[in-house]
Structures are given as structure tokens and as C-alpha cells.
Amino acid sequence: MKRTPQPGRRKRTARFSVLLLLLPLGAVLLYCACAALLRGLLPGQAAYVLALLAPAAAGWGAAVRIGAPADRQVHRLQEAFQTITDGDLSVRLPEEPGGMFSETYAGFNRMAQELQAVRARRDDYVNTLTHEFKTPLTAIRGFAELLQEPGFSEEEQKKYLRIIANESCQLSDLANDAMLLTKLDNQNLPVVNKTFWLDEQVSQCLVLLEGSAREKNQVLSAQIEPVEVCGSEELLSHVWSNLVSNAIKYTPDGGSISVTLTQQGQDAVFTVSDTGIGMTEEVRSHIFDRYYQADPGHTRRGIGLGLPIVHSILNVCGGRIEVESTPNVGSTFRVHLPVKPAGHL
Questions:
Q1: Mind listing the pLDDT tens digit for each residue in 52-95?
Q2: Domain that holds residue 36
Q3: Domain presence at residue 251
Q4: Average pLDDT, integer, range 188-215
Q5: Per-residue confidence (pLDDT) for residue 3, from 0 to 100
Q6: pLDDT confidence bin for 5, thresholds 50/70/90
Q7: Which long-range contacts (CB under 8 A, 24 or more apart) does 62-70 make?
Q8: C-beta atoms surrounding 144 within 10 Å
Q9: Phi, psi at 157, each rounded to 5°
Q10: pTM for this entry
Q11: How many angstroms separate the CA atoms of 303 and 126, rounded?
Q12: Mean of the per-residue pLDDT values for the chain?
């Protein structure tokens, strides 16, 4: 894991090294000064013995002066960590400029702030997940009970059964996405790499989603070049379906979506561009976060698992994703995927 460089670390090390050199030298000079002074007052070895008390007393005084505040600061830090352990993430420590623990306290405060933000996003995610599960379940139960009543025509029965089937698919998709992301996070998913034609997989994805675009009168165009890759065919299929379905979802009726697939050097480059609602810089910086919801009111169905899944799969497969977006203009997602996985000969 890459560590964040700590500002001022070299400066602190240099000051500590200088202090280690000056302390013995200061003690020797203080001893010599006291011994010279006491030689005129005390006979023989007594002057030298008493002279030792001066650096000892000075060292004890310095230890008390430095150690007591340091002990209080360490105790305060321990109490803050215990507060975090007890579940209170609102605790913050005073960042005294130039203090011995100022950078440590600042690091603790950043940690607590990040934990608090993650908890808030997690709670929002759980609430949204509960709502998204509850909505189709309520619909399924309501129409199932309705079908038990007499008097419905065959056409009405088919309509209600179709709604039940659609809501059941929504539940299944939610459960599958949640399970997939959990397995990716826990690295509990076997990755089977094999050689396959990526253009065929992307084309199949577009065929499956063409109906959704047609329902919104959208123009779905594609320029697909033959590209053969070696990777996880099962995992990568989630990447293309998520990105294209997102483009359809966030593009208004009558908009357009274009998909391209090319090979550039040792990379397969997949691009999907839309004329949708776009994103602000703030939203764009969080779209791959686990519990982030760009739509606070949840007016659109879904719990935002698609893009985190895409990001996790590309990490596993050695790929990367780039995003360009302008509010009310559209978005472009560009995936770079190595034709051969790392270490493949």
C-alpha cells in the first residue's frame, strides 16, 4: 500500500539528530563549568561529585518540562482513539501550530473525517438498498393479491403478471450486483482468463440493450473493430453492459449514444459517449465511490453499484477507465484494457 508522504518529516529528523548531539555536549560543558566553580570551594573529589548533580538536575528538569505535556498529549490521543472505537466519529483533536503532536493530530482528524464521510455514505447506501428492495416487493405482493380477486380479463392478468416478472428481475439484478461487488471487494471471485473476441462480446451487449434505447427513441450507433483479448470474459461483460445501460438511462428521450471499439497498440479501447445530462466535477470525482449517490432524492431507480463494479473489475483485469463529462451536454467513458493480461507470454 502506498503511503502518503508526511510533510516536515526530514526537518523533524534533522532537528532530532542535532538535539542528540547537543545534549551530551551541553551536559559535558555544564559539568566542567560546575567543577571549575566548585574546585575553589570544596576540597578534592567532592567538587567533581557535586558537579555531576548539575547536569543530572538539568536533565531531570528538561524531562519533566518536555515529558509532562507529551504525556498529556499521548493520553488525549489514546482517549480520542477509544472514542472512535466506541462509535463516535465526531471527535476532533486541537491542531496546535508547531506543537509536538500537531501533525499527528492533523492526521487523526483527517482519518476521523474520512470515516465519518464513509459512514454517512454507507448509511445512505443501506437506506437506498432497503428502499430499492422494498419497492418491487411491494409491487409484487400488491399485484399477486390483486390477481387472486375474480373479474379480471385475460389481457389484464397478462399485464399484471408482466409487471410481477419485471419487478422480480429488478430484485434479481439488485441482489446479483450486491453479491458481485462483495466478492470483488473480498477478492473471493475466481478469475478465469481465456482468449476471446471482444468485438463479439460488445456487439452482443448492444443487441441486448438496443430495445431499451428504442423505447426512449434514442439513436444507438456503433463502430466496432475486431479485437482479440485474453481476459475474464464473464467479468468484462459486466463492464460493457453497465456503461452502455448507464448511457441509455441518463440520456433523455431522442438523444444519441455512440459506442466504439478499437485496438491502440497493446490496448483495446472501448468508448461510449452520450448526449445525456452530464455530470459536475464534484459528481464526477465520486462516481466510483462505494456508497455515493449523485441523486439525493433517488428519483432514478438503482443504488449506484454499476460504476463501482466496473471500476473493481477493471482493477482485477489490469484495465483503467477515463471519464469526461459536461453538465447538460453529455458524458464519455473510455476504457483501456490490455490485450494480454500482465505476466502473459
A1: 666 666 666 666 556 566 667 778 888 888 888 888 888 888 87
A2: 11-88
A3: yes
A4: 89
A5: 46
A6: very low
A7: 69/100, 70/100, 70/101
A8: 12
A9: -60, -45
A10: 0.58
A11: 9
A12: 79
Instruction: Give the three cell numbers for residue 135.
Output: 419497492
How far apart are the C-alpha atoms of 161 and 233, rounded to whole Å? Answer: 34
CATH number, domain of 171, equals 1.10.287.130
Q: What is the DSSP string of 164-212?
A: HHHHHHHHHHHHHHHHHHHHHHTT-S---EEEEEHHHHHHHHHHHHHHH
Same structural domain for residues 210 and 279? yes
Q: By 3-state DSSP, what share of the chain in percent is helix, strand and coil, each rounded to 5? A: 60, 15, 30
* C-alpha closest to that of 276 among 299, 304, 245, 248: 248
Looking at residue 305, its pLDDT comes to 75
Do 184 and 309 form a contact (C-beta atoms < 8 A)? Answer: yes
5 in a domain, yes or no? Answer: no
Q: Tell which of 185, 210, 234 closes a domain.
A: 185
Domain count, the chain: 3
User: 4: pLDDT confidence band, cut at 50, 70 and 90?
Assistant: very low
**pLDDT value for 49:** 61
Is residue 115 within 8 Å of residue 86, measured between CB atoms? Answer: no
Last residue of a domain, one of 163, 185, 207: 185
Q: Please report whether residue 103 resides in a domain.
A: no
| Residue 218 in grid coordinates | 434514442
How far is 88 from 192, CA to CA, in rounded Å? Answer: 43
